Amino acid sequence: MISVTMLSGLGHAVFVAAGLLIYMMGTRIGHQHRHPSAAMAWVLGLITFPYLTLPLFLFFGTRKFARPARRERHQVLAIPQGGPSWATRLLAGMELAPAVHNERVQLHANGDEALRSLLAIMASARQRLDVCTYLFANDDTGRQIAQQLAASAGRGVSVRLLVDAMGSMGKAPAMLRALQRQGVQVRRFMPLLHNPLHGRINLRNHRKLVLADGQRLWSGGRNLASEYFVDRPGQPAWIDLSYEVQGLLAAQAQAQFNTDWRVAHGLALRKARRPHGTPGVHQQPVGGPLAQWLPSGPDHADDTVHALLLAAAYHAQRRIVAVTPYFVPDDALLDAWCLACRRGVRVSLLVPARSNHRLADIARERALRQLAAAGAQVWLAPAMVHAKAVLIDDDLALAGSLNLDARSLFLNYEAMAAFYGEQELRWLSQWCARLIATARPYHARQPSWARDIVEGVVRSVGFQL
């Protein structure tokens, strides 16, 4: 046994040096690019509290699975047609599947419409039905969805359900076990105990999608719980956004789900088949709605959606409109939006006056004050808004699961869809305008020194977690 005396001298120094070496190897060799404040926090923690910080780093520290791609310099990228060229070129450079024309795209104006679409897609499955969600609750809506999953399995459909272990922890264990007995394959993504991928506990799967036969896709920001769909006594449904697509976008999402399913089983990403291409591109309907699947997370070397949002801030000519429940961006994105304001772009941001996460509301205040000071229009919605959407001019709209905070931008497995069609852009623009019409303007107030310290601490801790 190592003596306390040894640990207080040479042994302690060796332990600290070993911890810093592990951090350096895990960060540099593994290409784990970090925000400077995050890197400083880990290093200071390893020096001052090494016996606590080193286990935490091994438990939480990994941010990326994928290494940067090594493309030959002479290789010419195939740039897809349609959509703003700056966006399609950037996304092609990050090796994402190209935009595709689809047979049909439908965005859901409210929870009732979204739930009907979800259940209809599940009922339409004939061969396979795949579901991925962050949260699956044992409430009226969750049980209704579970009944449809069981019914699909009962008629011979291959049903796979992937739930995030943290997001659904304690929500519906009995219901999930019952689904397994009824023939549904259930996997929990990165459980706290017996995780097949060690050191990845902090990387959560926040993607939400339902796929029927790889041809019909339901996705967006809604989890599988009542508050995302239906009004309850004294509890109106949250304002959220989802969509349904029939066409090749579903094939891109299917490839993504297959990879996530294998990773949840413990298969390393390098051995899994990543969704680079798009099956059947030549079968695209001529002139159908143009959309693109935009995954983001540890399974991609680049922070894909963050990079697109940065580029959009510098290419936007008229407007940037964003709807998000939580607004805690990194400094680069916040500065880019402030610069867009100063060069004449109309930046509008809508957030709930009070979200379901009090710490997120505290952490966002610095960013809201800075954005408002730069000339942006910040709006506070009276109800809980869980939707995630961004519009750039009249050329590009994003909708999906990604919040405008550091966890979604840099840690979570997320999925957005980029819409380039005139009809989808007009629908989303009108939807955002209706939300803003019901909101009140945000008025920045200078915080007290105590409040300023609290905001800084919460923001820093939030970035780590």
What characteristics describe this protein?
465 residues; 16 helices; PLD-like_dom; alpha/beta; 18% strand; Endonuclease, Chain A; two-stranded parallel ribbon; transmembrane; 17 strands; 3 domains; single chain; 15-stranded mixed sheet; Phospholipase D-like domain-containing protein
Ordered list of secondary-structure elements with their pairings:
Layout lengths: L3 H5 L1 H20 L6 H13 L1 H11 L24 H9 L6 E8 L3 H14 L3 E6 L6 H15 L3 E7 L8 H9 L3 E5 L19 E4 L3 E5 L21 E6 H17 L25 E7 L7 H12 L3 E5 L3 E2 L2 H12 L3 E7 L5 H6 L1 H9 L3 E5 L7 E4 L3 E5 L3 E2 H5 L3 E6 L2 H16 L2 E2 L7 H16 L1
Parallel strand pairs: 2-3, 3-4, 9-11, 10-15, 11-12
Antiparallel strand pairs: 1-7, 1-8, 2-5, 5-6, 6-7, 8-16, 9-13, 12-17, 13-14, 14-16
Helix pairs in contact: 2-3, 2-4, 3-4, 5-10, 10-11
- The CATH topology annotation of the largest domain reads as Endonuclease, Chain A
* Overall morphology: globular
Percent range for β-strand residues: 15-25%
Largest sheet: 15 strands, mixed
Average pLDDT taken over every residue: 84
Structural class, from secondary structure content? Answer: alpha/beta
Radius of gyration: 23 Å
Count every helix, treating DSSP H or I runs of 4 or more residues as helices: 16
Report, as a whole number of angstroms, the end-to-end distance.
34 Å
CATH architecture of the largest domain: 2-Layer Sandwich
Low-confidence stretches: 1-6, 72-78, 270-276
CATH superfamily of the largest domain: Endonuclease Chain A
Would you report the number of β strands? 17
Q: How many domains is the backbone divided into?
A: 3
- Order of the strands making up the biggest sheet: 4-3-2-5-6-7-1-8-16-14-13-9-11-12-17
Keywords: Membrane, Transmembrane, Transmembrane helix
Domain PLD phosphodiesterase: 201-228, 381-408
Organism: Diaphorobacter limosus
Pfam families: PLDc_2 (PF13091)
